[in-house]
Write a structure and sequence with these properties.
Distance between the termini: 43 Å
Strand content: 15-25%
Number of helices: 25
Low-confidence stretches: 175-183, 666-672, 685-693
Strand order of the largest sheet: 14-15-16-17-18-19-20
Oligomer: single chain
Largest sheet: 7 strands, mixed
Shape: globular
Radius of gyration: 28 Å
Length: about 700
């Protein structure tokens, strides 16, 4: 438990450093103080453990602080139309109609700034693109993209991105670059041949599902199939996780043990794990699982039983030491939380499920799914504002199919070089993959299969996580010893002290709930540049929530922005307005998640009275587009093509598509571009107040 404690403190410090909550100089000073405290506090009754804890936290923060990137070479190009040249890094993924990928730049040029050839420290840029060229991209493709370069979002920046490019014009050069990359990388060459073989023998969605189960990824799945898997809570089955690594290790171990004996099976199993991790692209979740599996195998070799909790924490510490940015990777966070749930919560949940007398084939998947779901629920709510209600039931029927699909897919991969044998083996893959697809489809069609909430702050996620994990931790023998000691110390305290502690805790909880439920006294409007369009989302003092959209905004990004504006307990918009046909398409995902009480379609004209404000919509263009004026408090915000003489703020887009907010001081208008920082917040409490962020 001591190793788990210090490992957890190191990870906490690394997370603080990654969030820039502690600068490297402050971390170094804290480490020095902790070292002095560790030395001076040694001995019976000393406080050396406090110094050691401070030292470990400070070292974690110092490691992250040192690893943070230096000056951004792309800063002069932000907000400028630029031409970027680079290679695709990693496997592209889909989000709505867009394809997301990362571009490792080698050259960037702009008409106003000039050209820069990047020879070292090649920066990563996040790109969201549409069209056939984007959908056919693969790792190593040489790409030239032209568009407006923006600053990366904070989350993407923590994951290594130095810029963002939304909906650029793409030119792709595959020939020399991709062939050279695949020729020099046997893992990529092997994966590409397996992908081609699965596509040759299996239709969609069976082929992409089987390939995702074996090697991870959903690139070949249609958007509808991805939505069904996500809604049913089965998305983790087509993502590389610890389960895949355990299956590979067990398969290699069983075969090698029967042929070569016990001692040779361990190095061969480790070799198989390393090769499989490289084959699937070495994502953070696979690396974490591989480190844990290798630690367990090495422990077996020296005659020690590996502790899964210790192995999990030490694997995370090793990854954070190598690259602290991995802690900001959502895939790693979900994998870590799910494994933590299996370690801490499954021993508690499994006996309770067993007492229900469910058959074993249903009880085991249900207890495993509930353990992982409870541990990852806060993270899902904070990161995605959504949770699948049907996931436990869907996993009961889907989990038994996964070993069948993996074994059959492995057999198909081995039989691909033998022509007709592959066609025969493909039938063994098609049947379970079809059943998995049907489970996802039927589960996703159940009423309220996916629940969408508003913005859940990280503090609320921590508040949900701590008691659940503490409940699981106290089920361990070490946790029960800690609990017994705490009970003894608590009983020794006098009644007034215990009563005061209870009253103080209740007061803090009540204050937090009251503060969260109290409506904001100031109106809040956020203007967001979302691809080739923009959205203005307003939260009025009385609690009304309004979204006005124009242009080809990205539907998924818009839905996520709406979730950030809503409080956790609200699941509906009061008003949604599409100023043009493209804006109505962009609203599709947001309307599905948060159905509005009132929807204004393109071409409509009306004046709507709202609690705390008024919205006037006018169809003043022949193409069905429109404009709007939102009045709240003493402010009037003009949107779209409207030219309102009484407006205090106007949202405009220039000919290059850059969204900006024009603010008036007297008769002078100043343009605040949204494109650089992605959004501008406008607050109004009776006075004109603007804040860019």
């Amino acid at each position: 438990m001591r190793g788990v404690g210090f490992g957890t403190l190191f990870l906490a410090g690394a997370a603080l450093g990654l969030a820039r909550a502690v600068d490297p100089l402050g971390a170094a000073l804290a480490a020095a103080v902790g070292m002095v405290g560790t030395v001076l506090g040694r001995g019976p009754g000393g406080l050396g453990w406090m110094g050691a804890a401070l030292l470990v936290v400070a070292l974690g923060a110092l490691r992250s602080g040192v690893a943070l990137p230096g000056p951004n070479p792309l800063t002069p190009y932000f907000g400028e139309p630029a031409s970027l040249t680079g290679t695709v890094e990693g496997e592209p993924s889909g989000r709505g109609r867009a394809t997301l990928f990362r571009l490792r730049l080698t050259r960037v040029s702009s008409g106003t700034v000039g050209a820069t050839v990047l020879e070292s420290s090649l920066p990563l840029v996040e790109v969201a693109a549409v069209g056939a060229a984007a959908q056919s991209l693969g790792p190593g493709d040489l790409v030239e993209a032209t568009g407006r370069l923006l600053r990366a979002t904070p989350v993407a920046e923590r994951q290594g991105a130095r810029g963002a490019l939304s909906f650029p014009v793409l030119q792709r050069v595959i020939s020399a670059q991709r062939s050279a990359m695949t020729a020099s990388n046997p893992f990529d060459r092997l994966r590409q041949s397996v992908e081609d073989g699965f596509g040759r023998y299996l239709p969609s969605p069976q082929g992409p599902l089987a390939l995702g189960t074996l090697l991870g990824g959903t690139a070949g799945l249609s958007e509808q199939a991805r939505l069904e898997m996500r809604t049913a809570g089965l998305g983790h089955l087509v993502a590389v996780s610890g389960y895949n690594v355990v299956v590979v290790a067990a398969l290699v171990g069983v075969v090698s043990r029967r042929i070569l004996g016990r001692w040779w099976s361990i190095p061969l199993s480790i070799t198989g794990i390393v090769l499989y991790t490289g084959l699937v692209g070495a994502p953070a979740s696979a690396i974490r699982a591989a480190l844990m599996a290798c630690a367990a195998l090495l422990g077996t070799a020296v005659g020690r039983v590996a502790d899964p909790l210790t192995s999990l924490v030490l694997a995370a510490v090793a990854m954070a030491l190598f690259d602290p940015a991995v802690l900001a990777d959502v895939g790693f966070q979900l994998s870590f939380a799910a494994t933590l749930g299996l370690v801490l919560l499954h021993p508690r949940i499994a006996p309770a499920i067993a007492r229900t007398r469910l058959p074993r084939w249903a009880a085991e998947p249900l207890s495993l799914t509930l353990s992982a779901e409870l541990a990852t629920l806060p993270l899902l709510l904070v990161q995605f504002s959504q949770v699948s209600v049907v996931a436990p039931v869907a996993n009961v029927f889907a989990a038994p199919l996964i070993p069948w699909i993996m074994a059959a897919s492995f057999g198909l991969a081995l039989s691909l070089p033998f022509g007709e044998l592959g066609a025969v083996t493909a039938w063994a893959v098609w049947l379970p993959a079809t059943l998995l697809s049907e489970v996802a489809r039927l589960a996703s069609q159940l009423p309220r299969a996916m629940v969408y909430l508003g913005n859940v702050p990280p503090a609320a996620g921590v508040a949900m996580t701590v008691p659940v994990l503490a409940w699981g931790l106290l089920g361990l023998p070490e946790g029960r010893d800690l609990l017994d000691g705490a009970r003894l110390r608590w009983r020794r305290r006098r009644l007034p002290a215990r009563l005061a502690a209870g009253v103080l805790s209740a007061a803090l909880v009540a204050s937090g709930i009251a503060a969260a439920a109290r409506p904001d006294s100031a109106a809040r409007v956020e203007v967001m540049a979302l691809g080739r369009g923009y959205a203005a989302a307003a939260r009025l003092p009385e609690g009304a929530t309004i979204v006005v959209v124009s242009g080809r905004a990205d539907p998924t990004a818009l839905a996520s922005a709406v979730a950030e504006l809503l409080p956790p307990w609200e699941r509906q918009l009061d008003l949604a307005v599409a100023l043009d046909v493209e804006g109505r398409v962009a609203l599709t995902e947001a309307l599905r998640r948060y159905p509005p009480r009132t929807l204004v379609e393109p071409g409509g004209s009306d004046t709507l009275e709202l609690p705390g404000g008024q919205l006037a919509v006018a169809a003043d263009r022949a193409d069905g587009g429109g404009s709007a004026a939102l009045r709240f408090g003493a402010l009037t915000l003009a949107l779209g093509g409207r030219s309102d003489a009484d407006a205090d703020l106007r949202i405009r887009t220039d000919r290059d598509g850059l969204v900006g907010v024009e603010t008036r001081s007297g008769d002078v208008w100043d343009l605040w571009p949204v494109g650089e920082d992605r959004r501008v917040s406008v607050l109004a409490d009776g006075e004109q107040v603007w804040r860019a962020r």
